[in-house]
Amino acid sequence: MIPELGQVALSLALAVAVVQAFFPLAGAHGGNLAWMSLARPAAQAQALLVAFAFGCLTWSFVTNDFSVSYVAMHSNSALPLHYRVAGVWGGHEGSFLLWCLILCVWMVAVSLFSAHLPEEMVARVLGIMGLLAAGFIAFMLFTSNPFDRLFPAPPDGRDLNPLLQDPGMVLHPPMLYMGYVGFSVAFCFAVAALLSGRLDAAWARWSRPWTTVAWCFLTLGIALGSAWAYYELGWGGWWFWDPVENASFMPWIVGTALIHSLAVTEKRGAFRSWTVLLAIVAFALSLLGTFLVRSGVLTSVHAFAVDPKRGIFILGLFAVFIGGALLLYVWRTSRIGLGGSFEPVSRESFLLANNVLLAAAAGTVFLGTLYPLAIDAFGAGKISVGPPYFEAVFAPLMAPALFLMGVGPLARWKRSSVPELAVLLRWALAVSLVLGFLLPLLFGDWSALVGFGLALAIWIVITALLSFKRTLAHSRSHYGMALAHIGVAVFVVGVTVVKGYESQEDVRLKPGDSAALAGYAFRLDEVSTVRGPNYVSARGHVSVTRDGKPVTTLYPERRIYTVQEQVMTEAAIDPGLTRDLYVSLGDPLPGGAWLIRVQHKPFIDWIWGGCLIMALGGLLAASDRRYRFAQKAKRVVEATA
Amino acid sequence: MKKLWLPLGFIVLLGLLGVGLKLNPREVPSPLIGKSAPPFELPRLDEPAKTFTQKEMLGKVWVLNVWASWCPPCLVEHPVVTELAKTIPVVGLNYKDARDDALPWLARNGNPYQLSVYDAAGRIAIDYGVYGVPETYVIDRKGVIRYKHIGPLTPEVAQNKLVPLVKELSGG
């Protein structure tokens, strides 16, 4: 009964979405206020219906209703309750339901925090979001219904993929989708502005906080995914340039460019048509990511069920939404005038350079990700593009972007003087270069690459602090920007040091044996058998000492999940600010020995710490008061109208 | 309309993705196709004392199927293998498995194999370039590998590829 109610709610949500798309858009076109005013209540009603459907599916999971096919595929009666709840988005159908729910969350947020916007704008934005929702709910109902029943009901479920039975995986998809789907708000604002023909500073100001918040969620989502890969896949890597990872990274890079380009459009009215294009592309890449992950056109460690019918439906949605937006863009942007002019040395031109570099970076990732597909499509063979390509092309593009990150915030709008900048920056440059040269010596093994990375990081931090000396008006958006840039510096430190100085060793140990790595001694005391709710595990007891003094005891596990008979390596990690010790238990060897991999990962936690700081910076910037004061925004609207 | 390249580029991308839907990224050509099957001599799964080598199959067109009891997709393809084995000799390569698991698995699900050899360490599988279980090879009368399928056999692959290929090889 409950699953049927969910199905009915979803069907009603589709009807409401159609209403939400048609009346407000038609009303905005014809100036019918009554029709426009339907946008907010329709969005909220739709959110309630989708939330109800989501609740129904969750209920089926919690009560182990294996007559629902989706539950039977992704849960099991032995699965702990919190993973049964997370199992809702553990597969294809449920992740789309989550996608729609999050779209509704954003719709409700727009309907609540848009009091200061003109009614026509709200109607258009919510109308286009309704169109998106209608497309995706129809996709679910027609090709991947999570409420399909299974007759006869199996006695027990197939269990959730053990890889997903992890706290990081519980949070990762909702965060990532908040980011992906959040870019739909910027997209809808851009399309609404194209429809109305008013691409002005006010439009950029309205879009900015939404874009920044979506970007923060995407940052956190990607960081969680990377952290999950690090400790759950069991072998210590944190980024694999896998197509699915790239699918989430491309919208992030373009979103980063969009945030910076929106700043120019808001402050100076320049880059307008470029900013609109970025808003469309950021969401296009989110949809492309969804398509790549869900259609199985690329091989990936994230193996999902392949169903061509689904692929064609998503491709259709992609074609309609993005193709439509691009045509509208081509048709309308010829009317956009140029914004304020600027000199070659100015904040505008530094941000332009930033955008060019980020767009090129997104392009290289795009090329590397789709190249195997293109080669295959022309029948020229099967190839795979791996980390060597991405590392070789990505880093050289990022290095100048990181350098400019230090100069941009200090340059003046419109026109900046080179001597003034040089005076301001020469000490920062000297200090970064000297420290960059000296710091790698602390690690005992000097490396030019590490020195370069550290110098860039120090450069970013010093210039971020200098930017406060420069202006007197300290706003939250300024603090947020500086904080986010410092986050990037922290991230860069993590990446360069771990790349330069990580070490690992594969050893065979019998209980009582020791291995040495990076000054630490790892002793395997014993291997015991542990029983979990839905797995049996061999657990190693590894005591770690340094110079004879105990550091910690680690318990790496090798679990066998009984339902899917899948073996999982649960690495044990001793995290630290300056290093992680990482031990994973491999296969048992003849003679009572075990294959064990020990790793020393200096500064690796800075990678995720940096992402967290970036996201906090973004949130701080998005909470700036100038986005909140309705009165002030209204005046701007009147002034520009 | 200088900006028309934008929708045009988008249409090219859509075309590419559409073609991509028809391709199977898991269908990887094996460098072993057209080469002699790597030689092996392994103990039989059911009778450890006896060994089996691929030479015994010379003169026949046969199928080598890599399987393991711990591999759920092997269970998925099992009915297809069973159907196939009614007309074509199928030899099982039991991969990184334990006898105590593998024999009951066959008892439970039926044993379509003419026999299975036991490759506990996965040595032979390395020679054959196995990188996922299940995998299936068609080997001709002269002991040359003619086809390789990665992942579970579907009834379509068996019907449209394996059976016609084996017929063609046996006829010639």
What does this structure look like?
Chain A contains 20 helices and ten strands. Chain A has helices spanning about 1-30, 35, 40-60, 70-75, 80-85, 90-110, 120-145, 165-195, 200-230, 245-270, 270-295, 310-330, 345-375, 385-405, 420-440, 450-470, 475-500, 605-620, 625-630, 630-640, and strands at about 505-510, 515, 520-530, 535-545, 550-555, 555-560, 565-570, 570-575, 580-590, 595-600. In chain A, strands 2, 3, 4, 5, 6 and 7 form a six-stranded antiparallel sheet that branches. In chain A, strand 8 (about 570-575) and strand 9 (about 580-590) form a beta hairpin. The model of chain A is unreliable at about 300-305 and about 630-640 (pLDDT under 50). Chain B is about 35% helix and about 20% strand. In chain B, the strands form two sheets. In chain B, strands 5-4-3-6-7 form a five-stranded mixed sheet. In chain B, strands 1-2 form a two-stranded antiparallel ribbon. The chains are: A alpha+beta (about 650), B alpha/beta (about 170).
Which descriptors apply to this entry?
heterodimer, A: 641 residues, alpha+beta, four-stranded antiparallel beta sheet, 20 helices, disordered C terminus, B: 172 residues, alpha/beta, two-stranded antiparallel ribbon, 5 helices, 7 strands, 37% helix
Estimate the strand proportion of chain A: 5-15%
Shape of chain B: elongated
User: What value does the Rg of chain B take, in angstroms?
Assistant: 20 Å
Q: What is the H/E string of chain A?
A: HHHHHHHHHHHHHHHHHEEEEEEEEEEHHH
Structural class computed from helices and strand pairing of chain A = alpha+beta
What's the story with the biggest beta sheet of chain B?
Answer: 5 strands, mixed
What string, H for helix and E for strand, traces the elements of chain B in order?
A: HEEEHEHEHEEH
Overall mean pLDDT of chain A stands at: 88
The residue-averaged pLDDT of chain B reads 85
For the termini of chain A, the CA-CA separation is 53 Å
